[in-house]
Amino acid sequence: MPRDIPQPDTDEIKALIAGVSDLEGPLLPILHALQDAYGVIPDIAQPLIAEALNISRAEVHGVVSFYHDFRTLPAGRHVVKICRAEACQAMGGAALGEHAQARLGVEWHGTTENGAVTLEPVYCLGLCACGPSAMVDGKLLGRVDAQKLDRIIGEIEA
Amino acid sequence: MKIYIPLDSAAKALGADEVAEAIQAEARARGLEIELIRNGTRGMVWLEPLVEIEENGERLAYGPLAASDVPALFDGKIETLGRVEDIPFFAHQTRLTFARCGLTDPLSLADYQAHGGLTGLRRALGMNALQIVEEVKTSGLRGRGGAGFPTGVKWDTVRMAKAPQKYIVCNADEGDSGTFADRMIIEGDPFCLIEGMAIAGLGTGATKGYVYIRSEYPVAIDMLRQAIQIARIEGVLGASVLGSRHAFDMEVRVGAGAYVCGEETSLLNSLEGKRGVVRAKPPLPALEGFLGRPTVVNNVISLATVPVIFEKGAQFYADFGLGRSKGTIPVQIAGNVRFGGLFETAFGMPLGQLVEEIAGGTASGRPVKAVQIGGPLGAYFSHDDFATPFGYEEFDGQGGLIGHAGVVVFDDSADMLKMARFAMEFCAVESCGKCTPCRIGAVRGVETLDRIAAGDAGAVPLLTDLCEVMKDGSLCALGGFTPYPVLSALQRFPEEFGTVKEAAE
Ligand SMILES: Cc1cc2nc3c(=O)[nH]c(=O)nc-3n(C[C@H](O)[C@H](O)[C@H](O)COP(=O)(O)O)c2cc1C
Ligand code: FES
């Protein structure tokens, strides 16, 4: 379950921050590194980042909350992203999005009750000539229809 | 026997990795010696996964293939499409920027050089900064990221600025729906972008480059990082570019899922580690850009077109095109089309020819209803606009824009009021929040369109008025251009907004 993810420890986070803090404009690389490691930006990380970069906590929080990618709450064990943008809509993307919500019983950004699947909208994956497109746990998929999506969701839920 | 299987994201999304695995397994089972190359895509997405087999000096294409086709492929039972160069969609193109994409091994610098790579950079190393900038000006190259600003003029501003450090920032945020040219060239010919950025460095005195790639593009991120590493080892990048006294190095930075970070000042803030809010201009990024220093911000395609300009000469490039739109444009054909993919052609082809002939009409076989050009901020065109030649001024004259040259085709099932609503909704989701017309206007736009959808045609003038305010009052083109898709849908398909029906009743 999402809530059971162990809280990372301070030293580990400090080491991750130190690993990229020499870059020009290090904040996004730091946040990506943290999210890669923990699946979220851990609560305890924000003050540590503020301290390391000599900026206010509010600034760190502002950045974390500005970008769609950064999470403060963990996602489900699997993440299904479905493209909502225009080229995919021209191929039935909107219906696919609705189907996904109905099939999983969640709205956009929602996670199924068993914590298995999080459904996210995405605005273009650059697969606009083979829509509707989706990304499931990082794997790209083109020409996705309701059947194909059901099969994939069935596989990851299993 | 050499076998090419694209590693391009679109090919992967259609099963290229599975085909590659099956080919390797089948070759092993048959005891066949093969050299498997993961190339970029040739750009014909409807044929992906497109496999090419090179034998006895002949390179033949097969596709679209599934993993289950592989045994038959080895048995010679799959009919070939012939040479890629002879497939009409490909044969009709003028491939300058994308000349190597799909042809070569994207991570082989030797292959790159065997196909003209680094010739441009070597030539630039024999020129001074002023000559380099003049060459770009002569080519007529204009920014391919959307605004169409002359690239040479931008470089000149940075060249003349005095600062201890200048930067080249490549905008690979490519958030527009219907576009994938940046992704395609980074995945298929990453050295081309590296070479273009190095030349930009020489022309402006910048020694450091950043490529800001959207996080939605994991394959491109990985390919470019690998290519940069190779370029460093081979002395293309580093303290001495190709053994010269010039330094240039570069780095990949990953975005975090914000469309507005494609706007150049928002991108710079993001790169600095701030919220991606738009900056007021002036100051121009060319004078006060990344960390307040002179910075070239250019789109991937603008930069990746620089090598061929230096390889073949500015005049050669400028001789293609139409009016003030010089050279070629990689049109990305997307949405509901039979032949979707990347079509690089000289400026000037009429929109109708692109949609009906090149794209082959809709995939659904139903009539084409609308074509959105230039991403979510671009206008919807209809049949009446099909004579418009592909050019910056020509599209502007029709109340539209080329943007990053994505062409998204819709069939007659498209609901234009819904598309207009989506444009406002997207603007509301992606607004950086700095200016009111965009942040609030987009939300009011959604509400107003909902009123119209509910039958209140009287809300149409309100919508038009709101669009005027957004156009005039927004800080950047997100709020400023969202009215394009909305108003164009309203103007070209008024019956769907209840206005015509009302009048007839
Ligand atoms: C909301 C918004 C999004 C944009 N997205 C991109 C983008 O993804 N890629 C891009 O190159 N330019 C984008 N632009 C245009 C940039 O602000 C800028 O004009 C461009 O990067 C300059 O490069 P160029 O002169 O080579 O075109 C966007 C502009 C706006 C207003
Ligand atoms: S619009 Fe869906 S992938 Fe581009």
UniProtKB/TrEMBL annotation, chain A:
Keywords of the record, alphabetical order, are: 2Fe-2S, Iron, Iron-sulfur, Metal-binding
Coiled coil residues, start to end: none
Which CDD domains does the UniProt record give? Answer: TRX_Fd_NuoE_FDH_gamma
Determine if Nucleus is one of this entry's keywords: no
Q: Which ranges does the record mark as transmembrane?
A: none
Q: Which GO terms describe its molecular function?
A: 2 iron, 2 sulfur cluster binding; metal ion binding; oxidoreductase activity
Which cofactors does this gene product need? [2Fe-2S] cluster
Q: Does the keyword Iron apply?
A: yes
Q: Which residues bind [2Fe-2S] cluster?
A: 83, 88, 124, 128
Pfam families xref list? 2Fe-2S_thioredx (PF01257)
Q: How is the cofactor bound?
A: Binds 1 [2Fe-2S] cluster.
Family to which this protein belongs:
Belongs to the complex I 24 kDa subunit family.
Q: What is this protein called?
A: Formate dehydrogenase subunit gamma
Q: Which organism is it from?
A: Pseudodonghicola xiamenensis
Gene symbol? fdsG
Automatic annotation (TrEMBL), chain B:
Q: Which InterPro entries does the annotation name?
A: NADH-UbQ_OxRdtase_51kDa_CS (IPR001949), Nuo51_FMN-bd (IPR011538), Nuo51_FMN-bd_sf (IPR037225), Nuop51_4Fe4S-bd (IPR019575), Nuop51_4Fe4S-bd_sf (IPR037207)
Does Calcium show up as a keyword for this record?
no
What Gene Ontology molecular function terms does this protein carry? 4 iron, 4 sulfur cluster binding; FMN binding; metal ion binding; NADH dehydrogenase (ubiquinone) activity
Q: What is this protein called?
A: Formate dehydrogenase subunit beta
Which range is the signal sequence, renumbered to this chain?
none
**Mind listing the UniProt keywords for this protein, alphabetically?**
4Fe-4S, Iron, Iron-sulfur, Metal-binding
NADH-ubiquinone oxidoreductase 51kDa subunit iron-sulphur binding domain: residues covered = 417-462
Which PANTHER family does the annotation name?
NADH-QUINONE OXIDOREDUCTASE SUBUNIT F (PTHR43578)
Q: Which family does it belong to?
A: Belongs to the complex I 51 kDa subunit family.
Q: What is the lineage of its organism?
A: Bacteria, Pseudomonadati, Pseudomonadota, Alphaproteobacteria, Rhodobacterales
The record's listing under SUPFAM superfamilies reads: Nqo1 FMN-binding domain-like (SSF142019), Nqo1 middle domain-like (SSF142984), Nqo1C-terminal domain-like (SSF140490)
Named cofactor requirement(s): FMN; [4Fe-4S] cluster
